[in-house]
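Hi again,

Forgot to attach this to my earlier email, sorry! This is the prediction with zinc ion bound. I've pasted everything inline since the attachment limit keeps bouncing my files.
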Amino acid sequence: MPKKTFMLHVRIVDGVHDRAIEDGAFVIQRVHTDKIPIEDHIVYAGPMAGYDWQAQKSEGDVVLDLSGGTYTVMPGLFNVHAHLDLRHPYKPYRFDEFGTAYRTMIIYRRAVEALNAGVTTIRSTGLPDEIDYAVKKAAENGLLQLPRMVVCGRLNIAVGGHAWNNYISQQFNGAEEFRMAARSELARGADFIKIGLTGGAASAHEGMADKQMTDEEILAVTQTAHNAGKKVAAHLGGDRAIQDAVRLGVDSVEHAYTLSESTARALKEAGAYLVPTLSVTNCSDYLRGHGSPDFQVRKLEEAAAEHRRSIARAVQAGVKICVGTDLLPSDPIDGTVATIREVELLNQVGLPPMEALKAATVNSAELCDVDHITGTLEPGKAGDFIVVEGKPDCSVSDLRNIRQVVRSCRLVWSDLPGLKLRRMQVTPDGMEMDGGTYRKW
Amino acid sequence: MSKTFFCHGRLLQDGGVLEDAYVVLNHVPSEGRLELRDSVEAVGTMGDGRMPAPGEGDQVFDVTGCTLLPGLVDVNTRLDLHKDTPPYTYDELGVPYRTLISFRHASEALWEGVTTLRTAGMPDGIDLALSQSYAKYLAQGPELVTSGPQYIAHGGLEHNVYGKKQCSGPDAFRGAARYENSKGTRSMHLGVTGRPVARLGGEPELQMTGEEMDALICLGHASGKAVSARAGGERAVRMLAERGIDSIEQGTGFSAGTARLMAEKGVRYVPCLCAAEDRGAAFAAVRTARENGVTICMGTALLPSEPMEGTVAAIRELELLVQAGLTPLEALNAATFAGAALCGSAAAKGIVPGAPGDLLVVPGKPDEDIAAMRSIAAVYRHGRPVRSSLPGAGVVPFQVTTVLFPLAGGTQKF
Ligand SMILES: [Zn+2]
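C-alpha cells for the complex follow:
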C-alpha cells in the first residue's frame, strides 16, 4: 500500500501566494486506508528547488512526473450557492413533486456530478426536509463518496416572500418566528443560516429589489446565528436592502443584482462576502431550453447589464468575492459546467484570473468556515484539489481542462499521464454521469 | 454496438447445468439517453456452430472452470437495517439519511451478487424512491421488488421497529394497502404471527384474523401482486395457505399435511435460516417443506451483505439451505429461478436470449460445492459489469465509496 504520492514538476496555485510556483512539487500522504475521519493530508506544496523528494520517498510511494506537459495543481473548486434539487421550470405553486426519499436520491446524484466536475465543496443554500444534513452526514462518516457539504437547512423567508413557490423555502412572520427558525436549523447542525431578504426572479409578482423582511426580523436572525458563531447568508437583489443587511450583520450577500459604489465600500469595510452568482443573469438560453416562464427570463435579462456593472464595482472596492451559481454546480452551459463558467464570468467583469481562482477556493473556504481544513494547498490541509492542464491563473478558461479530481487525498478520477482512473460511476458502466438539470429525474 | 463473450463456462439453467457453454451479451450504447437495452444475445454449447463471431472491440473471456449463473435473488430484506436500532418506535435516522443508508446497502448487495431483491417492508416510500432511481438510471442498483411497509396488526410482532403499518380490521388493512399500492409497489408483505406462547403449546401468537388476511391477499392478487407473510405455527400457516398466500417466510412448525397443502396451492417457503432464532426448528421445517414438494426460495431477512462466518448473509443462507438438506443445485435454484418467479422478476427465465443480462461468474462448481459461491469473480447487471476480477476486465466501474473504502460491512458499519 503506497503511503505518499509525489507530483513533480507541476505548477502550483496554492491559494496563499499571489503567483504560481512554476516548477513545484506537491506531496500528499495517506495515513489510514479506510478509517473515518480520513486523516490523509498534504505534506508539501512548494518549489522543486531545494526539496529533496528522493530523501522523503519510501518504497511503495507513487511518483508522478508531470514535466511532459503544463499542469497546474490547485485547490478543489467550491460552489457556495447551490440548490441540488433544482428543477426547471419553476412552478407558480408550491408542491413537493418528488417526495423526500426520491428528492434525496436526486440530490445525491447531483452531488456526485459536482464532485466529478471538480467541485469538492458545496455550500447548500436551501434544501427542504433536512436532506442537506443527511447528505453531509453521509459524506462525513464514509457512507458514500460525496463532496464536502456546508449546510443551512431551509431557505427562511417572509410570508409570500422570494421563492415562496419553491419547496425549499419556509415562511415566517415577525422577529420571534425568524429567531425560532434560525434556532431550529442551528439545533439540527446548520453551518450557517440562509434568509431570503428581497424579491428575485423566481416568483412572478415581486421586484428583484423589494425588501421583504423587517430590520427586526433580520436582526433576530443575525443575532441568533452570531451568538452560535455562525454566519448569515441572504438572498439580496437590490442596493438599499444590501446596505441595510450589511448594517444588520448579514455576512454574505447573495446575487447583488444592483450594488452602488458606496454600498460596495460598506461591504468591504464590514468584511462581508459577496456571492455574485453572475450565472443567474447570464443563462437565458439555458432557462428557455428548460421552458422557464417568460417573466423569469425577462426579469433576469433586464437585470444582466446592471448586475455585471454592480459586481465590477464590488471588484473595484476590493470586496471578497466567492463562487456560487444557483444553477447546479455540474449544469452544462456554454461548453463547460456552471461552476467553471461562473469563474469565467467573474473574470469578465474585472476579477484578475488569480483572484477569480481565489474566489473559487480560499475565499469560499473562509466564507464556509472550513479554511482551517481545506481551500488552500498547504501542509496539513485535507487535500481537496484538482489538476488542470494549462495555466488557469493566467487564463481561467483553462479550468475547462481538468485532468484530475481528488477529495481528501483520494482520487475521484484521473486522466493524467501515468495515472488513469475513470470518473466516479454510480450508474451502469458506460452511462454518462453528467447532465445537471437537463436530466429530468 | 459491442458484445461480451463468456466461453467454455458451465451455465446454470433452470433444471440443470450446460457444460462447455457460451453466453454472449449484446451492448447497445445509450448515447446520452437514459435507457439501457443490453441483453443476452446468444447461449449455447461451444462448437454448436451458432455462436456469433467476436468482432473488433468485443470482449472475450475464457471462463473455463467457472460457472455462469443468474444473479442471486433475495426475497426478504429490509435495506434500512442498521446498527443501533432502538427498542422503541422512533425514526432515529430521518427519511433522507434512511434513504442514503438504504442506497448504500442495496449497492453492497449488488456488489455481493444479489441482482434482485424484494424489500419485506420499508417505510416512507424509500424502496419506491430507490427503485425509481434505478429505473431511470439516476444510479445503479439491484432490481428492487418493492412492498412498501410491512402490514401488521396493532401491537403485532416488532411493532416497535420504525416503519410498520399497524391496522385492525379488514377495512383498515385494505385502506392502508390501497394507499401504498397506489404508489406503485410490486408486492405486499404481512407480519401475521408473534412469539411462541407456552399456553398454546408453543404455537406462536396469531395476530391477524382470517378476514384481515383475506382482505390483504385478495387486494394484492386483484392487481397481480405476490403477497407474502411472515408466519409460523400450524394454525397460521394453514390459514394463510388456504387463502392462497404466495409465500410463507421465516416461520416454522407447520405439519406435513400443511406442507402438502402449500405445495398444492403453489405457496413457497422462505426459511430465512441466517436470521432463525431456533435453527433446529428451521432446519426441520425446510425438510418438511422439501419432502412434501414445497418450492423453496432464498431470503435472508437481513441485509444480503451482512458479514457472517467469513462471507455475507446471502451466501451464508445458501450454505445453510444445503446444511438443512437441499442439494447445492436446489439451493442455487431457490436463490435464482424460484425467487425470481416469486418476485415476478424479469430475470426469472435465467440466462436465455432476450434476458436482461444479470449474471455471475463463479470459479468452480457451486452446484456441487455451494462454498464456491464465496468467491464470485464477476457480477453483471443489465449486461454491464458491476465488478470483475476476470483477467482483462480492466478497472472496476461501479463506485459509490471513497477509494480504498470497501463497499461492504452491512449493519456492522452503518
Ligand atoms: Zn439560491
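Chain B is about 30% helix and 25% strand. The first strand of chain B starts at residue 2 and ends at 13.

That should be everything now.

G.
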